[in-house]
Design goal:
Elements: H1 3-17, H2 19-27, H3 31-35, H4 40-57, H5 73-88, E1 92-95, E2 101-105, E3 115-120, H6 133-148, E4 159-164, H7 177-183
Parallel strand pairs: 3-4
Antiparallel strand pairs: 1-2, 2-4
Helix pairs in contact: 1-2, 1-6, 4-6, 5-6
């Protein structure tokens, strides 16, 4: 795990552990409004999120260890699971041509620049359960908490969760296919078959 991945994971765990103040900081919603429904935070941000990490950790092409490579049968199953979770959080969903799963809420100003959050859903062979999945599951959980509290549509800008189809590069020995496509920096030559 790279130092950036570790840093992002630590920040997400901090957000999960201090949910009311962190959601307030990121969304501009008053913390007092969220504390009225504080009982939902442990249920959504801890219990459900952990259960979803374990559920996604079982979506594998291999028996006995986690392996979910780009465009594999397990990745197709993961797309369906993640998309259902996004819809449960009140997000409009779609899968782009590279297989990235998007879940979006427009908030109060649909024309503002969107905040993009998430991570990758592919894995290396014999992967750790949290790599990639933690960024997807925690982002969905945070938005679900806002949805249940009636605050999702009041966000100041659009928020889009993206479960990127490929970061690891295991299947085709080319990394960042999913995020490269979203960012518009994926060279067309990468997609050529030799």
């Amino acid at each position: 795990m790279s130092s950036n991945t570790l840093l992002h994971s630590c920040f997400l765990l901090f957000c999960l552990l201090s949910a009311p103040s962190c959601v307030s900081m990121l969304s501009g919603i008053e913390t007092g409004d969220l504390e009225k429904r504080d009982d939902l935070f442990p249920q959504i941000l801890r219990d459900e999120a952990v259960a979803r990490l374990y559920q996604l950790g079982k979506v594998s092409d291999a028996g006995g260890y986690l392996e979910r490579t780009f465009l594999s049968p397990a990745s197709m199953r993961a797309i369906n699971v993640i998309r259902k979770w996004m819809e449960d959080a009140g997000l409009r969903t779609w899968v782009d041509q590279m297989g990235n799963v998007h879940g979006r809420v427009d908030g109060a100003n649909a024309n503002a620049e969107a905040l993009l959050i998430g991570s990758h859903m592919d894995t290396v062979v014999d992967a750790g359960m949290f790599d990639g999945s933690l960024g997807i599951v925690s982002a969905i959980a945070a938005l679900k908490a806002l949805h249940v509290n009636g605050k999702l549509q009041k966000l100041r800008r659009p928020v889009e969760v993206i479960a990127f189809s490929d970061e690891e590069g295991v299947r085709f020995q080319t990394t960042f296919l999913g995020s490269g496509a979203v960012a518009g920096i994926l060279p067309a030559t990468t997609l050529e078959i030799s």
